[in-house]
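Researcher: Go.
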Amino acid sequence: MLRILCLSLALGLAAPAAMAGPAAPAEGRVTVTYVAPETFRDREFRRERSRVSALAEFDRWFAELGARYLPAGQSLQVEVLDIDLAGESEPWRSGFHDVRFLRDITPPRIHLRYRLLQGGAVVRAGEERLTDMNYLSNPRGHGDGRRFVHDKLMLQGWFRKTFAAPQRQSRRDLSG
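Model: Structure:
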């Protein structure tokens, strides 16, 4: 009887918190929601198996970027509305079904909405359509074997520009 009462009490205390809706992400954390990912422009998201794998990869990258660039005490909520990955597969090339061919006309594109929170209050919010038309010129992407490297570099640049605190340059940095 006591065991049932304790369980009932624990469930009773947890219920109001669960009814309040999803909690805001913890400090320095990023919460990502993919809105209808099966309709994303890139064919990588049309098959469930590849979609799940790709979204897990982006989840890890968003978390890493949040830990690296968000100031202390802030969290970020992101809704990804569309992803068109860098490059394109060319199914007519036999033997290269899982290869993405990178061309100037196939830059990475990501459409998202975001809310930056501090202490539960919205500090900044917006909607962005990220595109890196010069992705093939970025030397950091050459020879990098990471999956979706150009898409990740584009997101990293956006995080740095949008959320990182500006660093003051020393006199030495300015003179060189």
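Model: The first strand starts at residue 30 and ends at 34.
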